[in-house]
């Protein structure tokens, strides 16, 4: 365990060659390891990673956003990498995850922020936008549907149900945690490689992800996000998203149907839908320049 924790501590901004500092932030019932970059008085931008990434999933965005004058906040979400890892499945309910974002803003004395999320980070983004819209200047969603759109697709479209089969596998107790490390985390690295464009991830990326996955109790906690959703079957208390919302979608997503992008945008009072025809689920890695341009354009729409 000591070795794993020591290795994890090396995955700081300076270690991976990007600007920023690491800080542990008390957001309520957990502490989140958070990377901060850019001027303290800049417009705040919070970047939320998904499964199976950690703060490093946004590493290419730290320098350009900081140089543009934004205050960039990139947490390891609850259970991931160096952040605290509650043992109970209920601790990963979306209400708790969205609460972490608000707690992070409070701890950093930020009234409202531009919130960007990919994958599970996008689900958290939807949840914050639906329940505490006053904390958001803008919302930017990458390749995860609005929760109501996704629920309807799962019940009405067998194609989407088939694509989501792995979420059912993650409901099994202990089995995912036991199988995942086999072959030096071969299944996870294969999934990243096979569902992205060739060359999107290199061996340096994979080694950093392996380090994060290997932190004691991290992978169990990552899977508990899926278990919490499966057990609680949560529904948002409202369906209308009021902050200005960008839905940015890679059309070649192996996990989610492209039709969900437009269906999700329809739940937003003010939305802009951008589909990248040649990108996959991992669009923020594949098209960083285009994604950055769309994000900064979205930030400028804030009232």
Uncertain residue segments: 1-7
The tally of strands reads 8
What is the helix content?
40-55%
Largest sheet: 8 strands, mixed
Topology pattern, helix = H, strand = E: HHEEEHEHEHEHHHHHHHEHEHH
Outline: globular
Strand arrangement in the largest pleated sheet: 1-2-4-3-5-6-7-8
Structural class: alpha/beta
Strand content: 15-25%
What is the CA-based Rg, rounded? 18 Å
Q: Helix segment count?
A: 15
- Give the averaged pLDDT, no decimals: 95
Distance between the termini: 48 Å
3D structure, described in words:
The chain is an alpha/beta fold and about 300 residues long. The chain is built from 15 helices and 8 strands. The protein has helices spanning about 1-10, 15, 60-65, 95-105, 120-130, 145-155, 160-165, 165-170, 175-180, 180-195, 205-215, 220-230, 260-265, 285, 290-300; strands at about 20-25, 30-35, 45-50, 70-75, 115-120, 135-140, 245-250, 270-275. Strands 1-2-4-3-5-6-7-8 form an 8-stranded mixed β-sheet, sandwiched between helices. A hairpin with a 4-residue loop joins β1 (about 20-25) and β2 (about 30-35). It is globular. The protein starts with a helix and ends with a helix. Mean pLDDT is about 95; it is low at about 1-5.
């Amino acid at each position: 365990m000591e070795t794993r924790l020591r290795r994890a501590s090396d995955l700081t901004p300076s270690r991976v060659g990007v600007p920023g500092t690491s800080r542990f932030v008390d957001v309520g019932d957990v502490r989140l390891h958070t990377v901060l970059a850019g001027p303290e008085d800049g417009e705040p931008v919070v970047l939320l990673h998904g499964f199976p990434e950690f703060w490093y999933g946004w590493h290419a965005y730290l320098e350009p956003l900081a140089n543009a004058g934004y205050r960039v906040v990139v947490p390891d979400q609850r259970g991931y990498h160096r952040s605290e890892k509650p043992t109970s499945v209920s601790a990963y309910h979306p209400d708790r995850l969205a609460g972490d974002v608000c707690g992070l803003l409070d701890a950093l004395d930020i009234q409202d922020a531009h919130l960007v999320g990919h994958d599970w980070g996008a689900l958290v983004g939807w949840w914050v936008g639906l329940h505490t819209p006053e904390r958001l200047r803008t919302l930017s969603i990458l390749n995860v549907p609005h929760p109501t759109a996704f629920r309807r697709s799962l019940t009405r479209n067998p194609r989407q149900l088939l694509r989501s089969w792995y979420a059912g596998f993650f409901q099994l107790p202990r089995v995912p945690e036991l199988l995942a490390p086999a072959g030096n985390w071969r299944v996870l690295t294969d999934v990243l490689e096979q569902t992205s464009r060739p060359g999107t991830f290199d061996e340096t990326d994979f080694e950093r992800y392996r380090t994060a996955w290997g932190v004691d109790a991290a992978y169990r906690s990552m899977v508990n996000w899926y278990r919490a959703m499966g057990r609680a079957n949560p529904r948002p208390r409202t369906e209308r998203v009021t902050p200005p919302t960008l839905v940015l979608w890679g059309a070649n997503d192996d996990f989610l149907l492209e039709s969900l992008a437009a269906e999700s945008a329809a739940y937003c009072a003010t939305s802009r839908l951008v589909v990248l025809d040649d990108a996959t689920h991992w669009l923020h890695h594949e098209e960083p320049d285009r994604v950055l341009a769309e994000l900064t354009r979205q930030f400028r729409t804030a009232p």
